[in-house]
Task: inverse folding
């Protein structure tokens, strides 16, 4: 698996959806679980600029190769979220994309600022911060593309298969960048390997956690991966990440699935009740009106 930043810069572009049969989206049904996953995935794709805001304050960004990658990566991820939103709208689920994104962000509240500050401080205190960040990037991209593959399989929806198949190609390139960059950083650097492993074992959380609650993360994990093939795919993610220097036999995604199962055994209905209740709307926070955070006003306000 190779990656060339020069080639990536030349070839990076908005997701090509030419020929996607948008007009037949309604002709094939989706389960509540499929819809739950699509909302989750859309929200996380749309959250990428905020993940980026965390990275741009760290010293990892002293590296021009990394910033070139992030500039293209952020743009590509934008179109993943946009197109999943379009798909849901065409399926008949009505929401305003901008309102939804603003609400997701507003719900983070003060915690987001604390998180930016601690990431910034951590990166300047910890010389090998980049190794951790790059490894997490590799895990997240690999998990995302594996999740899309699982949703293609679960849903059996031909248009969704076509759309997600195209997105998966982008995610593979993202994974290649993060994985190769993490490997370069970790090879022959035992201290970085120790820091990376320690942080992943203790600080890492599945992609989307923080924006989504533990129960939402579990609902998605169990819907997509709680069968023989799904579990195998998660073990395969761990095995691939375990090929990074110092991360031999690490358990991340499989552990997340086993912990989700444990929570369900203690609390039957956990996760599944969100799917059954179609709990995918995002309400604005009670205390900080979104308008005040975005400074946007309705068109009538100007008159
Ligand atoms: Fe994406
Ligand atoms: Fe990606």
Result:
């Amino acid at each position: 698996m190779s990656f060339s930043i020069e080639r990536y810069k030349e070839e990076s572009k908005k997701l090509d959806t030419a020929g996607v049969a948008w007009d037949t989206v309604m002709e094939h049904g989706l389960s509540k679980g499929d819809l739950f996953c699509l909302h989750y995935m859309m929200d996380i794709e749309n959250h990428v600029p905020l993940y980026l805001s965390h990275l741009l304050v760290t010293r990892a960004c002293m590296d021009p190769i990394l910033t070139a990658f992030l500039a293209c990566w952020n743009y590509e991820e934008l179109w993943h979220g946009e197109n999943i939103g379009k798909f849901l709208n065409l399926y008949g689920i009505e929401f305003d994309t901008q309102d939804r994104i603003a609400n997701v962000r507003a719900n983070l509240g003060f915690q987001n600022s604390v998180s930016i500050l601690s990431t910034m401080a951590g990166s300047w205190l910890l010389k090998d911060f980049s190794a951790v960040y790059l490894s997490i990037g590799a895990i997240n991209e690999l998990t995302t593309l594996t999740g899309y593959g699982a949703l293609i399989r679960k849903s059996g929806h031909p248009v969704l298969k076509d759309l997600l198949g195209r997105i998966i190609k982008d995610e593979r390139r993202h994974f290649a960048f993060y994985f190769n960059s993490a490997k370069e950083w970790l090879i022959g650097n035992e201290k970085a390997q120790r820091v990376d492993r320690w942080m992943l074992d203790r600080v890492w959380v599945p992609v989307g956690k923080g924006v989504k609650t533990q129960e939402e993360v579990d609902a998605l994990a169990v819907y997509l991966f709680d069968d023989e093939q799904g579990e195998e795919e998660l073990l395969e993610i761990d095995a691939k990440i375990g090929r990074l220097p110092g991360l031999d036999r690490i358990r991340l995604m499989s552990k997340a699935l086993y912990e989700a199962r444990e929570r369900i055994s203690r609390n039957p209905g956990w996760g599944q009740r969100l799917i059954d209740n179609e709990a995918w709307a995002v309400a604005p926070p009670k205390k900080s009106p979104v308008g005040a955070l975005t400074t946007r006003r309705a068109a009538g306000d100007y008159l």
Residues 77, 141, 144, 171, 174 surround fe (ii) ion (ligand 2) (CB under 6 Å). Residues 158-186 form the longest helix (29 residues).
